[in-house]
UniProtKB/TrEMBL annotation:
Native source species: Eutreptiella gymnastica
NCBIfam families referenced in this protein's UniProt entry, alphabetically: HAD-SF-IIA-hyp4 (TIGR01459)
Protein's UniProt name: Phosphoglycolate phosphatase
One GO cellular component term noted in the UniProt record for this chain: cytoplasm
InterPro entries documented for this protein: HAD-like_sf (IPR036412), HAD-SF_hydro_IIA (IPR006357), HAD-SF_hydro_IIA_hyp3 (IPR006356), HAD_sf (IPR023214)
GO molecular function: phosphatase activity
């Protein structure tokens, strides 16, 4: 694998020549997907081979993603790129964590279904929301706001306004956000990224910033927030029968803010 950088709080960044030099230091690797393993269309050179060699040395691998989709969708997408399930132990997506949080909120209501104002992806919003036990609602009657994409705004089930670009949605969403903030609705953001890797297009993190500027309360799932790392540790603990030692884990990513910042905050080498 290409040269990588491991963050050390005492000595500063240390440049190493590849993953082979990390085998004795770490038992578990938390790998970002887009920007580390692939570019969304094909694997990066050496990525598949590197993962196979890590597995051959008995290393545990958990793949992390700030994707708004559930883990089953992520499995399918990775397999299309050649990353079979034999190359890793688990996948943790911000979309999966958000779905479980949404379902918990829905189960806590006993009088009626949870009503959600959805700013979404378009193609899979309906299955995502209804499978969590929620119903679509406009901003005036919703219980909470879900920001999981940049291409659709739902007023009710079957009533979706589609946007050709993320920039168009971002420019049109202010009145609805102001209405939700005035009503004190919490917002759940299933992808904290501010910009899409590569293109730089707006992502749901920018909607969250707008909402916070209006005084709204925002709940984040995904890197750099701790829930994604807690889910990784829980998965590894179940597989190993004992919690992994943080100092024997190594997080690898291409974002200083999300991948490196999140790992550093929890004392995980990166």
């Amino acid at each position: 694998a290409a040269a990588t950088v491991v963050e050390d709080d005492v000595q500063g960044p240390e440049v190493v020549g590849g993953f082979a030099l990390l085998l004795d230091r770490y038992d578990t690797f938390l790998l970002d997907q887009w920007g580390v393993l692939h570019d969304g269309k094909q694997p990066y050179d050496g990525a598949l081979e590197c993962m196979a060699k890590l597995r051959a040395h008995g290393k545990r691998i958990v793949l992390l993603s700030n994707s708004s989709v559930r883990r089953t969708n992520s499995y399918a997408g990775l397999e299309r790129l050649g990353f079979g399930p034999e190359l890793f132990d688990d996948i943790v997506t911000s979309g999966e964590l958000s779905w479980h949080w949404l379902k918990e909120q829905a189960l806590s209501r006993t009088d009626r279904p949870l009503r959600v104002f959805v700013i979404g992806r378009g193609q899979d919003d309906e299955e995502y929301v209804t499978s969590a036990g929620c119903v679509f609602s406009g901003p005036g009657t919703a219980d909470l706001v879900l920001a999981r994409g940049m291409f659709s705004v739902w007023r009710s089930e079957g009533d979706m306004q589609a946007f050709a670009t993320a920039e168009q949605l971002l420019g049109a969403i202010d009145p609805a956000l102001a209405q939700c903030a005035a009503l004190g609705l919490p917002m759940l953001v299933s992808n904290p990224d501010q910009n899409r890797p590569g293109s730089g297009a707006p992502m749901p993190g920018q909607i969250a910033s707008k909402y916070q500027a209006l005084g709204g309360t925002v709940h984040f799932r995904g890197k750099p927030h701790p829930e994604v790392y807690a889910a990784s540790v829980a998965s590894l603990t179940e597989a190993l029968g004992t919690p992994p030692a943080p100092e024997r884990m190594c997080a690898v990513g291409d974002s200083l803010e999300h991948d490196i910042g999140g790992a550093r905050a929890l004392g995980i080498p990166n």
